[in-house]
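Re: [ENG-882] Designed sequences occasionally contain unexpected residues at chain ends

Forwarding the minimal case from QA. Structure tokens:
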């Protein structure tokens, strides 16, 4: 017998051991476990690459918790993988997943359903789901399950304790719609996805999900994405990372997320977007904000080394609380206004605010002048001090109050102003009296006055004295209003209004 005759059966035997590429039938698909769904009537095994062909829908109907379903999975354009309802379904992929089509996991109908996509490759470079042009990932779990439980799960199997991260990647012309799902060590990485509705087949909505251990979200260049009511729970030994990163995503809506560290950063945002009613605790930095036109409102940051860091940022921080942080606010090269922010730093060594080449306006904030540290040179704009604190003035009148009464406030000692110029230390004066009080915060006509400050030379500036006058309407046309009472006032720390929805009067005056 010749040598090549011996070699032929050996080659045939070895080819049987090599992983195959198995395609769906091209006739519409069918159940994953049905051999008729696949070409050659061979259901993919752990060593096979499964390919769902164009216009085929394969319904995953198995529980492969303890074994690999396939080596890798590819979905052609207009192909679909759908998890079957009615039991436990675990798809276990030992390699990559790439899709031009649809992956749909809907466990929202029955709380007894359980659906999981498990990534278990021994090669960490192959632990990803790549969403390509025209693809969609739609996931919905049952809402409000007890015991912090989720029945739609993405899981990266840990082979390198304590964490092993997988990635869901998408870059433009893709749809990501995630509701009530759990992600264990799975990172969402999305770039250049439009969520405005102006582009077909592009969506980016991440709502009410649980991100655990090293699972995080990173968004870059996405238009109007929504990240709402998600929870992030870091692992004590996770590597330094950011729970929620949003870069150059105009009009991003970051709302009502809860982040519990340890993370290096809770929320890291760049550019024109909004963060509202988020909670961040036990991170090195609670919130980092960079770039123009940022808005933070009603956020709570606690037990962080730095509560909020601002870098070359313009915008506003409205309401909310910064508690038990070693440095509540650090700003570098920023021009910002903080309004009605409560800073609770009980530690005597803590810093309320540290500024480097920045200018900060504080309106109704409880940061004291002694809690502010300035470093380096001030902003180059000559009219801007390091810090200017402002207070609401809410005046309550007692006694006989005439109809259409007004309260006027002027700086007591003020140099001569140009003709027609307004008092630079006062806003909205004179103010009308409504009932027995001047307008309340939020009315746009509430009285405001400058309080203490820190000048461009870095030295403290004391709050000025003001002359408050209560006026009745003039008795005749072209006559001056009637002066009912005058009083000198000076802003003090107790003017801080902790609850602007139920404010207390700043000043009480009895009309003779």
């Amino acid at each position: 017998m010749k040598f090549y005759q011996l070699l032929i059966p050996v080659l045939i035997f070895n080819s049987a051991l090599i992983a195959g590429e198995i395609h769906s039938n091209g006739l519409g698909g069918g159940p994953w476990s049905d051999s008729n769904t696949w070409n050659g009537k061979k259901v993919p095994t752990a060593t096979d690459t499964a390919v769902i062909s164009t216009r085929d829908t394969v319904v995953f109907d198995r529980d492969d918790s303890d074994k690999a379903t396939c080596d890798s999975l590819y979905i052609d354009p207009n192909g679909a993988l759908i998890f079957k309802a009615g039991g436990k379904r675990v798809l276990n992929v030992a390699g990559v997943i790439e899709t031009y089509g649809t992956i749909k996991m809907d466990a929202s109908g029955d709380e007894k359903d359980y659906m999981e996509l498990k990534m278990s490759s021994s090669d960490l470079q192959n632990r990803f789901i790549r969403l390509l042009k025209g693809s969609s990932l739609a996931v919905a779990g049952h809402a409000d399950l007890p015991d912090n439980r989720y029945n739609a799960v993405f899981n990266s199997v840990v082979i390198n304790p304590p964490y092993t991260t997988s990635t869901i990647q998408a870059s433009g012309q893709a749809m990501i719609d995630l509701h009530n799902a759990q992600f264990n060590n799975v990172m969402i990485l999305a770039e250049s996805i439009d969520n405005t509705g102006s582009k077909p087949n592009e969506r980016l909505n991440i709502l009410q999900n649980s991100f655990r251990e090293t699972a995080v979200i990173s968004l870059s260049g996405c238009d109007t994405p929504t990240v709402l009511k998600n929870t992030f729970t870091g692992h004590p030994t996770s590597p330094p990372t950011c729970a929620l990163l949003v870069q150059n995503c105009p009009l991003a809506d970051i709302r009502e997320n809860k982040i519990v560290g340890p993370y290096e950063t809770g929320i890291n945002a760049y550019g024109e977007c909004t963060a509202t009613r988020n909670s961040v605790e036990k991170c090195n930095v609670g919130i980092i904000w960079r770039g123009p036109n940022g808005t933070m409102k009603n956020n709570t940051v606690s037990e962080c080394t730095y509560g909020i860091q601002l870098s070359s940022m313009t915008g506003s921080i409205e309401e909310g609380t910064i508690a038990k942080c070693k440095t509540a606010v650090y700003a570098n090269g920023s021009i910002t206004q903080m309004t009605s922010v409560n800073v609770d730093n009980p530690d005597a060594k803590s810093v309320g605010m540290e500024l480097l080449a920045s200018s900060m306006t504080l309106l109704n904030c409880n940061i004291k002048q002694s809690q502010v540290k300035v470093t380096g040179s001030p902003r180059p704009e000559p009219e801007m001090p390091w810090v200017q604190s402002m207070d609401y003035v809410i005046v309550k009148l007692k006694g006989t109050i005439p109809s259409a009464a007004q309260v006027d406030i002027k700086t007591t000692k003020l140099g001569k102003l140009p003709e027609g110029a307004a008092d630079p230390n006062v806003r909205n004066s004179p103010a009308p009296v409504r009932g027995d009080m001047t307008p309340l915060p939020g009315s746009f006509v509430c009285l405001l006055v400058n309080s203490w400050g820190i000048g461009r030379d870095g030295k403290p500036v004391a709050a000025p004295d003001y002359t408050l006058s209560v006026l009745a309407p003039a008795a005749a046309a072209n006559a001056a209003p009637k002066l009912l009472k005058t009083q000198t006032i000076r802003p003090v720390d107790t003017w801080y209004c902790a609850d602007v929805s139920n404010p207390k009067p700043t000043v009480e005056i009895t009309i003779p």
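QA comment: On inspection the terminal residues look reasonable. Confidence is low (pLDDT under 50) at residues 1-18. Proposing we downgrade this to a documentation issue.
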